[in-house]
Design goal:
The chain is mainly α. The chain is 61% helix and 4% strand. It is built from five helices and two strands, in the order αααααββ. The chain has helices spanning 2-18, 25-32, 36-48, 51-61, 71-86, and strands spanning 90-91, 101-102. It has a two-stranded parallel ribbon with strand order 1-2.
């Protein structure tokens, strides 16, 4: 679940970042044909995602070789978890009424 949540968050971030490239007319026309829900998510992502924080997270992760189970992988996962918790996410096993939740899976 958490892996999917992380993937979704990164996908939204990437979509929001790429949407800044729509300064030309063909890109604006293509954006106007997007489903309304997708445009709303894009606007939400643009208003809540901080590019500096995202860049800092990637810079942190770039210091490590991330193979599942090694120190770099674990440190990167912990950093992402810290960021999600700072944004209000809670572990789904906690009693987090009204808060968005996720689950950290292990093997």
């Amino acid at each position: 679940m958490r892996r999917r949540l992380i993937l979704v968050l990164w996908s939204v971030h990437l979509f929001a970042a790429c949407s800044d490239l729509d300064s030309d007319e063909p890109a604006r026309q293509a954006r106007s044909r997007l489903p309304v829900a997708l445009v709303e998510y894009q606007e939400l992502a643009r208003s809540t995602i901080d590019g500096v924080r995202a860049r800092d997270l990637v810079a942190f992760m770039d210091h490590y070789v991330r193979l599942p189970g090694n120190r770099g992988f674990d440190a990167s996962i912990e950093k992402v978890i810290e960021e999600l918790e700072a944004a209000g996410y809670r572990d789904e096993e906690e009693d987090a009424v009204g808060a968005p939740t996720g689950k950290q899976e292990s093997r």
